[in-house]
């Protein structure tokens, strides 16, 4: 059984993960920190640049937490989808083989296959009972719904930080926008099922690797552009 569970944990969960990657989570007291940071930002009413900088930094932090929450939920959804498929498929296979063995025993009049048929049928029953008790399909759907909710919050945070912030003329409107976002986040947090710590850690590692790849790609592109400019300038000087 431990080998079976280990196989499930190592199976790919990519089907529920969008191309953008995934994202943060549920165990820290995020709301208290959010309120404290929001109050601290409100003190920058005289320095617009400082306020907007603090607002962007705070919003970026919220986006990262939503990313990791989304990643964790989608990983959990993929895990329970694998559990559902393997438990269901194994129960069917053991049941079919056990039934065939029992039928062969009756038809051929052999006695040595009776214990085999009993073991196979019992195993099929146990697998079906485990599937019924764990309800992996229900758990998968719950985690996927939560992942979709965190995905929407991630997009909202990105939109506020990259677009809406330039359309809000006053700090009060920015704070109202942030308040509305925090209310949505509080609702999604309350509706999200709990994620095991190992899933959360795996989500964080995924995001870190993805960010490293994006950063490296950007650095390589900038270096390539710099080399192209240098070659162009040398060619122009030669002419």
Q: Would you write up a description of this structure?
A:
The protein has 239 residues and is mainly alpha-helical. The chain has 2 domains: 28-195; 196-239. It is built from 7 helices and no strands. α3 packs antiparallel against α5 and α5 runs antiparallel to α6 (171-191). The termini are far apart. Residues 1-46 have low confidence and may be disordered.
| Total discrete domains | 2
| Mean of all residue-level pLDDT scores | 76
Give the terminus-to-terminus CA distance: 74 Å
Q: Give the CA-based shape.
A: elongated
DSSP strand count:
0
Query: What's the story with the biggest beta sheet?
Result: none
Order of helices and strands: HHHHHHH
Kindly provide the radius of gyration, computed on alpha-carbon positions and rounded to a whole number of angstroms: 27 Å
Task: Assign a percent range to the helix content.
Answer: over 70%
Low-pLDDT ranges: 1-46
Structural class comes to mainly alpha
Beta percentage is: under 5%
> How many DSSP H or I helices?
7
Short description:
With 239 residues, this protein is mainly α.
Topology of this structure?
Elements: H1 2-10, H2 30-42, H3 48-108, H4 114-134, H5 136-162, H6 171-191, H7 197-238
């Amino acid at each position: 059984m431990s080998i079976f569970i280990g196989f499930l944990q190592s199976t790919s969960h990519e089907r529920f993960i969008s191309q953008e990657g995934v994202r943060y989570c549920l165990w820290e007291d995020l709301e208290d920190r959010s309120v404290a940071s929001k109050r601290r930002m409100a003190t920058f009413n005289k320095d617009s640049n400082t306020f907007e900088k603090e607002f962007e930094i705070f919003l970026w932090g919220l986006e990262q937490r939503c990313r990791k929450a989304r990643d964790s939920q989608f990983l959990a959804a993929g895990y329970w989808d694998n559990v559902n498929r393997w438990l269901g498929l194994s129960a069917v296979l053991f049941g079919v083989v056990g039934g065939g063995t029992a039928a062969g025993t009756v038809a051929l009049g052999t006695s040595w296959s009776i214990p085999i048929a009993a073991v196979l049928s019992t195993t099929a029953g146990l697998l079906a009972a485990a599937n019924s008790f764990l309800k992996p399909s229900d758990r998968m759907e719950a985690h996927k719904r939560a992942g979709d909710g965190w995905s929407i919050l991630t997009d909202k945070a990105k939109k506020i930080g990259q677009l809406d912030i330039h359309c809000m003329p006053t700090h009060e409107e920015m704070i109202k926008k942030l308040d509305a976002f925090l209310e949505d986040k509080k609702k999604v947090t309350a509706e999200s099922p709990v994620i095991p710590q190992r899933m959360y850690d795996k989500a964080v590692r995924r995001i870190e690797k993805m960010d490293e790849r994006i950063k490296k790609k950007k650095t390589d592109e900038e270096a390539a552009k710099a080399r192209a400019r240098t070659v162009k300038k040398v060619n122009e000087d030669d002419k």
